[in-house]
Amino acid sequence: MPWPSRKRDKGVVADKKEPDAKIAKTEEEAPDKEEEEKSTKPPAGSSKSGWKNWKKTKESDSGGEESKITYCHWLLKSEPESRLEKGVDVKFSIDDLKAQPNQTTFWDGVRNYQARNFLRAMKLGQQAFFYHSNCKEPGIVGIVKIVKEAYPDHTQFDQKDPHYDSSSRKENPKWSMVDVQFVRMTKRFIPLSEIKAHHLAHKEDGGPLKNMMLFTRQRLSIQPLTQEEFDFVLSLEEEKPH
What we know:
Residues 73-235 form the EVE domain. The chain has 242 residues and is an alpha+beta fold. It has helices at residues 4-10, 14-28, 33-38, 51-62, 94-98, 113-121, 192-205, 213-216, 227-235, and strands spanning 71-78, 84-85, 88-89, 104-107, 127-132, 139-152, 176-191, 222-226.
């Protein structure tokens, strides 16, 4: 999900590969070690988050009804630390996004079919967590929104781009990208280790993060979130870090 804008800042291909590219590579060629490698294993019981308080609030809003899973939010991974891929630095942090014109850029470089399909399912105005990946301390740093729905990813046709795909044809492009815009920083950094603590606890007590794809499909650079998952994770920004 590279940010073409940033690459442009660098001059050529650098901008697009960064976010998307990095993520795509993480998905297909190397394990997205951000979650596995850097996440600590907090005890399941440490999710004092307030799942119970959160649940009460949500039940009062929805009548406690359960509906079938619907994904309406997203989590987008991007690498905030420099890493060369075919000679191009794929680094793209949330600060890089904020520095783009109108704080907007395209999320390119995705080369995983499931992640691509998620991109194609994104709707205008939907919000996503911006997740710093493959770094010393991975986690959620901000919120972005979809400002342009899926269209062909031009990097697939650029032979100088790390994500060039010689098998893709302009008349029938394999890969897509979307445009995203910075909305705001989260009130605090929400680390992977903290989210994992809640996930483990929720697997035991049926909380909203029990099936969160960040842990069930960790290598995917683009992941869908249910309204409940998004709301719960967002509620963590109000808590003091453990």
